[in-house]
Amino acid sequence: MRQRKKANDVKQKDRITDPNSFGERPGASVFNPAFSSKNVFLICLAVRMANALMVQTYFNPDEHWQALEVAHRITFGYGYLTWEWEKGIRSYLHPMLFAFLYNVLALFRLDAPWIMIKAPRMFQSIFSAVGDLYIYKLSHVLFGNHVAQWALFSQLTNWFMFFCINRTLSNSLETVLTLVGLYYWPCIRVSSSKVPLVSRKWGLVVAALTCAIRPTSAITWVYVGLLELLLTRHRLKFVFLEVIPIGLMMIALSCLLDRLMYGSWVLVPLNFLKFNFLSSGGDYYGTHPWHWYFTQGFTIMLFTFLPFSIAGIILSKQWKLFGLISWVLGLYSVLGHKEFRFVLPVLPIALIFSGYSLATIGKANSSYKPKGPPGIHRKKPLKMHLAVLFLLASNLPMALYLSLVHQRGTEDVMNYLSVEALNGKVENILFLTPCHAAPYYSTLHRNIPMRFLDCSPSGEKGVLDESDRFMMDPVGFASEFAKNWSLPSHIVLFDSQEKLLEDFLASHSFQEERRFFHAHFKVDRDLQASVVVYSFRGH
Known about the structure:
It is a single chain. This protein has 539 residues and is mainly alpha-helical. The chain has 2 domains: 36-404, no CATH class; 409-536. It contains 23 helices and 5 strands. It has a 5-stranded mixed beta sheet with strand order 2-1-3-5-4. Helix 20 links the parallel strand 1 (429-432) and strand 2. Helix 6 (113-143) runs parallel beside helix 9, helix 10 (197-213) runs parallel beside helix 12 (235-262) and helix 22 packs across helix 23. It starts with a helix and ends with a strand.
């Protein structure tokens, strides 16, 4: 009894003297009964599934063209493979997840249009919920339960996480795996000496898997690995008995899978490095100034959470995690081609700091009630109410608008055509739009001829691709193209080009069939207010 009491006294002393403590009950378990891992995961899963159903807009072509198209081809034998797959700079690891999903749907004959449209994002929501659970767990081991709850609140209400995390992008899975991996790395913890080394091996496995899926994830794990090398007492064991064996094992498994799918030996990370870093191939799709992530990209992603995240960084003094954010943003800033999704994996880390700031506000203006359920306070602070209302009022409308309204036309048009194709009313389709502007076979789910305007990078400078030539001169390009086309039954185009092609369409006996709203404002080209389907009505 005396020894047990002494042990409890030590735990209580440690909890009280912990500079990051937020008034947890002395001797409380890692997760209190109200917020067990299971309960957190089930809550997050319910939220993310509802979130997945609400995402009905088009964001980035890779969501469909680099994941679902490939998985559809693996499962059903048809689907378009872009030029990246010809050059071997993509791994089949990520698409295989959705190939598994499609196989299950096909096995139970559930591959109806509506299910094929909704199932991938619903499937992704399971992984998203795992990521939410691990942001809670990581925050908990760093700062305690109170901060973990507010970090989870920040994760679930941030507009960009709501908008992006359930999309079938490899970046979404990369983000989830990054959160899982960080939780197992001792160097990330406040006191790494208390973490068993087996935890680090799990962290290495997750890190290696993340890099196999997206080679650029190595930017994150180089930082973490160097930090661990600096802090660990077992450097030789870490390098020679953990990093090298686990890394080689994951490379071997990834290469075997790609050998099976490509039909030849392909070293994807090397090809990816050559194209994106050594030859700056990504610059073909546009460049941004070096400071874009700091002044626009990451700032917009955080949005109104930004001041809370900055305050959390300063108050928590968790410089290792702040260093990771700075490292990732800094290295990605060197690359000319920049996108929001590239830095998605460090957004949850910034939201952890936001949770710390919100927890600090609550701690400063409330009193802890020693009896009853933990976390219950006698009064709710006014500042806390205002902060929560401010974050909800600024993030949720933006999340809902971008998920339900902005750029939904290209999704709606393919949903419509998938039903029409099922009923035998569509024979072939021509997309007179910028390339990859809409989903493809993975949504249509019918093996009929389709044609879009190609935009594969050309080895010759100054040579315009089909998509660019069409956008520069829609009438001239369409007239030349029609000389050798196989007459389509349907043409899909944006209203901005429709106005220029009205005479061309009428002269070839095409009439408007359906029109779908797309956007209220432009993104990176002329306003594309609606998407129009024209059908051939005969001569």
